[in-house]
C-alpha cells in the first residue's frame, strides 16, 4: 500500500491561505494532488488539514481528507514529521499499513 500525504495547514502566517490561493488557474494544492494522481504511484492520496475549506477543495480535486488534523498538530511549531506520523498512524488504524509513504508539499509542479 503506497500512501501520499499532502500537509496543508489552514493558518499559514507568511502567505495566508497559500494552499488554496489560485496559481496558474488552479488552487495551489491542486497541483500536488494532480501530480500525485498522474504518477499512478499511490493507492491513497490524503490531505492532512485542519481547515474545512482546504478539505473541500482537496476533495474537489480528487484527494481524500478522511480526518481533521488535531489542533496540536496545526500550530506554527509543528514539524512535518509529526504530521506525517499522524497520517500513517491513522492509516494503520483504519486500513492496511502503508509499505511506502511520500510527503508531497502543496507546490506547483510542471
Defining traits:
110 residues; alpha/beta; 3-stranded parallel β-sheet; two-stranded antiparallel ribbon; 5 strands; 17% strand
What's a quick, concise take on this entry?
Helix content is 33%, strand content 17%. With 110 residues, the protein is of the alpha/beta class.
Provide an overview of this structure.
There is one protein chain. The chain is an alpha/beta fold and about 110 residues long. Helices cover about 35% and strands about 15% of the residues. It is built from 3 helices and 5 strands, in the order βββαβααβ. It has helices spanning about 30-40, 50-60, 80-95, and strands at about 1-5, 20-25, 25, 45-50, 100-105. Strand 2 and strand 3 (about 25) form a beta hairpin. The mean pLDDT is about 95.
How is the secondary structure organized here?
Blueprint: E1 2-7, E2 22-23, E3 26-27, H1 28-39, E4 44-48, H2 52-60, H3 80-94, E5 100-103
Parallel strand pairs: 1-4, 1-5
Antiparallel strand pairs: 2-3
Total helices: the number is: 3
Helix coverage percent of residues?
A: 25-40%
**How many individual β-strands?**
5
Radius of gyration: 13 Å
Strand content bin: 15-25%
